Amino acid sequence: MENKRVYLCLAHMSGNEMKYIQEAFDTNWVVPLGPNVDAFEADLEAMVGQGRHVVALASGTAAIHLALVGLGVGPGDEVVCQSMTFSASANPIVYQGATPVFVDSERDTWNMDPDLLEEAIRDRIARTGRKPKAIIPVHLYGMPARIDDIMAVARRYGIPVVEDSAEGFGSRYRDQEVGTFGDYGIMSFNGNKMITTSGGGALVCSTEEQKRQAMFYATQARESVPYYLHKHIGYNYRMSNICAGIGRGQMTALQQHLAWHRHMCQCYVELFDGIDAVTVHVNPDSRFDSNYWLNTILIDPTKTSVTPEQLRLALDAAGIESRPLWKPMHTQPVFSGAPAYVNGVSEHLFAHGLCLPSGPCVTDDDAQRIASIIKQQLAR
Ligand SMILES: *Cc1c(COP(=O)(O)O)cnc(C)c1O
Fold this sequence. Notes:
This protein is an alpha/beta fold. It folds into 2 domains: 17-251, 3-Layer(aba) Sandwich (Aspartate Aminotransferase, domain 2), CATH 3.40.640.10; 254-379, Aspartate Aminotransferase, domain 1. Helix content is 37%, strand content 13%. Helix 4 (91-95) links the parallel strand 2 (78-82) and strand 3. The relative contact order is 0.18. It binds pyridoxal-5'-phosphate. Pyridoxal-5'-phosphate binds at residues 59-61, 85-86, 88-89, 138, 164, 166-167, 188, 190, 201.
C-alpha cells in the first residue's frame, strides 16, 4: 500500500478564500487594512460573542504583546505565565522588559493549576512587596483551562488575565468561548492552527477602549493630526487585507474543521480503548468542550517500557508525523533565571506525552494505521 505522509495539522482550505483575495486585488485593497480586515473582525466578534471587540493582527504573539502593552506591563514588573506552553506565550513578557514567573499545570486539563497560581501570587507579594502585573493562562491543545477558578484567584488579588487561546479557537467552557473570560484573549491563525490566514492573530478585547488602544499601538502609535506625531513607541502589527481574506474564507469552514478535530479524538479514544498504557487526553467533565486542535496521548511508564520517542520514531518510519508535548518554560535554557512554581506535572507530561495527527487532512484510515503502529510497538 502506497501511503502519503501524514502531518500533525495541515492547513485546509474551504474553497472560498480566493474569492475574498480576488476582491482585495480587484478593489486594490492590498494593504494592512480594508474591507476584509473589517469583515473578518466582525466574523470573529460574532463567533466569540459576549460583547467582545476583536482586533486582527499580524500574529498571535503580537496579540499577547499588545495585551501586555495595554495593561501597562513594563521593566521591573512580573507576569505570571503557564509553564506548560509554547514560548510565544512568554516571550512578549520579556519584550516589555518584565520578568516571567512560571506556574505549573494540574493533571486534568494540563493547564495552569489555580491553587499553585495563588501560592505563586502570595509568594511573589511576600518576596517583592508587589503583586504580579498580569496572569497568562493557556488553553493548551485546545483544552480549556480551569478558567473559573483562575479568574476567581485573579479577582481576589485584582490582577488582570490575558487568556492565551491561540490553540483554543472554538473551544468552550460552560458554553462560553475561551478567550472571552479574561481582560484580554488572544487568537492565532498561524499555518497549523485551527484556522489559518497563512500567518496572523487577533486580540480579543473586553472594552471598546481596549480595542481603540490596541489599534493605535498596532499602527505605529501615530497621533491623529495631519503630520506624523508620536508620543509613544508603536508597532507594525496590523493584519493585511489579503490575509484577512483567507481568514474570511476559513471562517466558512470552521464548523467542519471543529467537527473533524472532535471526530479524530473520538477515533483515537475508540482505537486505544482497552490499551492500558495509553491515555487519550479528553475533556475532564461536561463543562469542558475542547476543540481537540491536536490530539495527544500519555504513555504510562508503569505499564510499559516503550517511550514516546520510540513511538515517534516508529511512526516517522511509517511516514507519520508526531511530536513530543511542549517542553515546559521553566526547563528552557532561555528562561533559566525566571522564578517558577512547579509540582512535577508539566515535566511528567513532557516526558511521557505525544501529539498525534489531527484535523481535516487526517482520515479514519490514517488514525487506524497510527493506532496499530503504536499498539505493535507496545506489544513488542
Ligand atoms: C501558536 C501559539 C502562539 C503564537 O501564535 P503565532 O500566531 O504563531 O504568533 C502563542 N501561544 C500558543 C500557546 C501557541 O500555540
